[in-house]
Each structure stands twice: as C-alpha cells, then as structure tokens.
Amino acid sequence: MSDEESSVLSSLRLASHAPLDAAQRAGRMKCSRCGASRMFYCYSCCALVGLAPRDVPSVELPVKIDIIKHPNETDGKSTAMQAKLLAPRDVNIYTYPCIPELDQSKENIVLVFPGPDAMTVEELWEHFSADGKPRVKRLKVTDADPETHSCPIQRVVFIDSTWNQTTRIITDERLQALPNVELKSRRTCFWRHQKGCPDTYLATVEAVYYFLKDLHSHYFSEYTGEYDNLLFFFSFLHKLINKAKQAAGKV
C-alpha cells in the first residue's frame, strides 16, 4: 500500500469492520438465493452472504445514482454492487443495453464522464440556471440540521466498464443529451489496475464516492464523512488483498 493510499483510506470515517473480519474468518459461504460460493456478498444477486443487514452501514445520498454496466464487465471484478448494497434506496444498476428512463424535463441529470465539453461539479449551478432560477432539490443534510440546502441536480449516471469498453455505451443516442461532468483528478486505490491506463482511472465505487464528496462540499456544507461508508467494503478488501500480497512477498 502506498503512503497516499494509506492516507486516503485510513482517514475515512467508517462503520466497524469487525463483522467483515468475522465473516472473513468463517470463509466463503453459499448465497441463499443462487447457491454460489461467495465472500461478504453475492455480486450476482445483490445479497449479503455471511452478514446480516445490521452488520453493514446504510448510506443516504442527496441524489439518485444510476450505474450502467457494460455487459462484458465481469460482475466479480466490478465495485458497482458495493454502492448498491450500501445505498440501496438511492443506487440502481442496469446492464447495457438496458438503461434507466432519463427524463430531463422532470429532473436535472448529469453523466459523469470526461471530455472536452465536460464541466466541473462547481459549474453545475450555472449550467442548470434558467433566468437565474435553477431547478433545485432542497434537502436537509441531516435530521439534526434544520437548515435546507440546494442541489442543482437530482440524478447522476455512471458507466461501469473498463476504459476500452466505454465507447459502446457513451455513444448511445439515449445518453447524448446528458451534460457531462468530469471529476477532479485522484489516484485510484483499486487493486485491479487497468493495463495501459493511468492511475487516475477510478473504480466505479470510488468515482461515486468522490463525486458525492465534491457535490456535498460545494453545495451543502463542509464534508465530514457523510458518504465515507460507500467505501466500507472497498477499504476492507483493499486491506485484505494488500496483506495477502505482503505475505506472498509481492509488495
């Protein structure tokens, strides 16, 4: 683990990993739905395995998240399911060519994808303003905070795919009208690095996390870990895999 990775992951405000430690010691178990052997969760059924719902955090998000997964993306290697398991009320996953209904007349929607015309999170308000009056969603950051804050978007679309596979989805005519947003450059902590790609290519759950972190910081209040638990599984698996590499003398 690099010093930067250690700093990023160790600074997260996470729920206790004790249930994951116990589940890891117990070993792989059969998914109650499909019978497949899994550790922690079944990526085919979106179900916990060897864990109870109380063992994992539930994260509430300020916007709805739609993840469009490339059909050739290996389920077991994708981190998209982690986002769905940890924020089940706000995250949905679709396997291309199925995509969600995206009605821009009812809500402000953006696609997180880099490009020459992509805007930053900070530019969202100006983009969606009409006569200085943007359509916004007003919400409380927490139940303890009576003050409402305005968010210029209501739905965010992510693509779950290797970089080489994205063309098929990003060129789909159903996505062409969506404005693109580009994330600030961050280095991935993902242990499955894409060959030939820079280390700024994030895993899907990392991209969701960083987008929400930037959105919160700019439109709500100072970020204090509200969405850190989206990396609950990711951070534990990172630690587990890094330990295995160290034991094998590969790091």
UniProtKB/TrEMBL annotation:
Keywords assigned by UniProt, alphabetized: Nucleus, S-adenosyl-L-methionine, Transferase, tRNA processing
GO MF assignments: tRNA-uridine aminocarboxypropyltransferase activity
Subcellular location: Nucleus
EC number: 2.5.1.25
One Pfam short name: DTW
Domain DTW: 38-246
Gene Ontology CC entries for this record: nucleus
Biological process, per Gene Ontology: tRNA modification
Similarity comment: Belongs to the TDD superfamily. DTWD1 family.
Protein name: tRNA-uridine aminocarboxypropyltransferase 1
Organism per entry: Onychostoma macrolepis
Lineage of producing organism: Eukaryota, Metazoa, Chordata, Craniata, Vertebrata
